[in-house]
Hints:
By secondary structure, this protein is an alpha/beta fold. 57% of the residues lie in helices and 8% in strands. The chain contains 24 helices and seven strands. The protein has helices at residues 38-47, 61-72, 102-105, 125-139, 147-155, 161-184, 204-207, 216-223, 225-234, 237-247, 255-269, 277-287, 289-295, 301-307, 313-318, 320-332, 340-360, 368-375, 377-380, 383-392, 397-421, 431-444, 447-458, 460-464; strands at residues 6-13, 23-28, 34-36, 52-56, 77-79, 188-192, 195-199. The strands form two sheets. Strands 3-1-2-4-5 form a five-stranded mixed beta sheet. The relative contact order is 0.07.
Amino acid sequence: MTEATLRVRAIFPLTRAAGGGRQLAIQLAASGGEVMDPAALVGRARRLGADGLVVRLPADEAAVAALLQAAAGSLPAARGHARRRRRPPWSFPRRPTDAPPRRARQESSVKSEGCPWRRLRRPGPADAERLAFLGALLSGQRFTSTAEGQAALEQERRPSLSVLEAGGRLIARTGLAALLRAGGHLPRTVLRDGQRVRGRLWDAALVGDFQLSYGSGTSRLWTQGVIEVPAVQRSGERERRKILRRWLQVSDTEPGDWLFVRQIAPGLLAQGLAGADDEVQSRLRAASPLLALEDLAPVTPADLARLLAPRAVRLIECWQAPLVAAWRRRLRGLAGEPEAASAVASVATVLHQWLRALEKARRLDLATSALVVTAELLELVPPGRLRERFAAQRTPRDQGRDAAVLLYGLGERLAELRDALGQVRYGDDQHAEAQLYLADYAAHHPPDVTASLAAARRTAAGVIG
Length: 465
């Protein structure tokens, strides 16, 4: 290895811990391996979207440190001894791989053979302020800042490794607890490769490719939120929009991000955002298709398909009961909406989209929540009350009729799926899915409910008029 080159034995991504961002591990060798220019190595890391480097150094550490220091620039790098291995999805994030040993952590800053890879500091008031803000978000309470903490945040606008580690552990722990409470602790029969499998959240047969991974948007939301929320509260509309675009990431989100956003949405809105509640709620729904589906807010078919991907579908498998509870609340409030006809049509459209997504993904075994709320639909949204509301708002007859037909048509759509799956024979690819859906349908849709919904749809014009 010369002064201008490095010998690279392996490059691989590390497991993405909650709030830790993308960490790329680079294993160097004193001999052998691929000879690379340091600038080319850093360029490859940037193209892969790395937020930091964890470098396993050979014997000649000082020379390598000097080379990488010159090439890395603003990309944080640190020494480490990371091993390539896959952790189970329920494991909690460990100490960040770019953190120093415990003894070295006592120093205000750590240098790697004369190379200051990243400034590390002891936990202080700024870290305490960030963790208190995260706790308030997760508990749905109003955050009360301290003068000392806000002053410290002005000096330390970037979080320390120790607060990222502590926050990551808290996020992972509360996320897994939420999945368990939602239904992951109960045995459930679901599909895996077209076959029925029964188990709980932690059973390996059901885990498959699922991993509760988190992106950089999660860490930005809570570590910078303690600074951005006060800025939003005192800013005008134009400046507020800039802050929200900078602060709330809506693209490149992971399954862990979806669950985290769903958990902190009530707490974030409870902070008092000076009239920005609707915009914040809209950005949170864009960041989390799970939150959008639970709120029955407008959502694209592509986002619904992401929820049913193998690496994320475990969320929906565990989240059936919360979906039912949220949909009940949303449906009960339809008649009180300022624009009731538009609200009814929007909610019904999302439910129809969800059924189409389940059908396309061949996961109608996850239609339980839709079956439950549709069976209660006439109680949740009584046709008579809807008629009165439309009359009070002077809703055009065609608009009200179309909205009611779409809503009460859910019952006939579910019946059509029952009839289609009833034709699936033993040995066909969809046999297991058909059996699970038919059993759910029989359990939640008695014949009188199906007939009542069909009648309400056929007579929608009379009901509304």
